Amino acid sequence: MENRPDVVLGLLTGNWRRGAELKLRHFDLWHYFKLGAFADDSEFRDRLPEVASRRFRELTDRPISPRDMFVIGDTPLDVACARPFGARSVAVATGFFSYEELQEAKPDFLLRDLSDRAAFLNLVIERN
Length: 128
Fold this sequence. Notes:
Helix content is 36%, strand content 14%.
């Protein structure tokens, strides 16, 4: 995705910025994220999409429609944080919560895992 000029990869997490950076640097992933919204930015997770949107605008000098933003996560809280802003949620059942538990959270999209890379990219990029 990093070679696509129409995609800006951002990180929205309930972790503090420094903690997220340490975790992702350990796996050489930090450099992929051009912007982020973190626990340092708000104690309320559902405000983080707005922070990410503002940072997108600052980075690109253009706004982003909430419907063009995807919150991808593995918890019901990840799904819930997308709703107030109008972002789309993609729940992935690779964490502590089962597929059925994530289904109850009513995400826009629900995947068992990310093993089918093409299907995932089609979901968040091509279908957009």
